[in-house]
Amino acid sequence: MLTIFLLIAVVVVVGLGLAFVGHLRKTNASPVSSGSDEFPSLSFDSQTLYRPIRSVIRAIRTTIETSSDPAVMAMADSVRQETDSAHDRIVRVLQTRDELRKATEGQPAAVADASRLQKLRESAESDDEKLSMATAYDSKLSELAEYEKAKVVIRKIESEVQLTVSSLNELKAKLSVKQAGTSASDQTDDLRASLGNLETIQSSIDEAQAMLHP
């Protein structure tokens, strides 16, 4: 009786463990890779930037899974890896964009504070008061400089996302259309060049994020 009870307990524990692992895999899977309709946690306008990325990557995945073209079949694994990497980086960089946009909400108040501190510095009478106001004013100017730096990064992120969309669309076209008179080897090289362009854009996105912490 005890043996049967222990056997049942082991089966239950193993079953729960497998269910938990399956849940983790589902949770960690890319929405594009898993075919899920769920969107990553992004603001409304960042989702607007994300949707074309999601759409074209899904189209690329469908193409490589159904193509009988030798060049496409030879590059299928590389294309999957690179597009999945591009997707994940775009999601992360758009989440960074959302964080930066939220952080820059304090800029109008900082501008008003800087104007007020400048007037106080100019009207200060004692040397100690002038020094104190000057220090506070310089600190506020540094804060404003950080806001401007964040805005530069935001614009660069948006530009690089658009470049990624263009590069992915170019890759999709090359995967979808067999080029007349082009050998499989040449076509493979052409696809590899497109993946290289995509990697360059992704590196530029990383550089944009690095601008925050030089």
Parts with pLDDT < 50 across at least 5 consecutive residues:
1-29
Tell me the major beta sheet: none
Q: Per the principal axes of the C-alpha atoms, what is the gross shape? A: elongated
- SS class: mainly alpha
Number of strands: 0
Helix content: over 70%
Task: Report the C-alpha radius of gyration, rounded.
Answer: 26 Å
**What's the mean pLDDT score?**
75
> Strand-and-helix sequence, N→C?
HHHHHHH
Task: Spell out the key features of this protein.
214 residues, mainly alpha, 7 helices, 85% helix, disordered N terminus
Question: Can you walk me through this structure?
Answer:
The chain is mostly helical and 214 residues long. It has a domain at 40-105 and 142-210. Helices cover 85% and strands 0% of the residues. It is built from seven helices and no strands. The chain has helices spanning 2-28, 31-34, 44-66, 70-103, 107-123, 127-176, 184-210. α4 runs antiparallel to α6 (127-176). The protein starts with a helix and ends with a helix. The model is unreliable at 1-29 (pLDDT under 50).
Write the layout of secondary structure elements.
Layout: H1 2-28, H2 31-34, H3 44-66, H4 70-103, H5 107-123, H6 127-176, H7 184-210
Quickly describe the structure.
The chain is mainly alpha-helical and 214 residues long. It has seven helices and no strands.
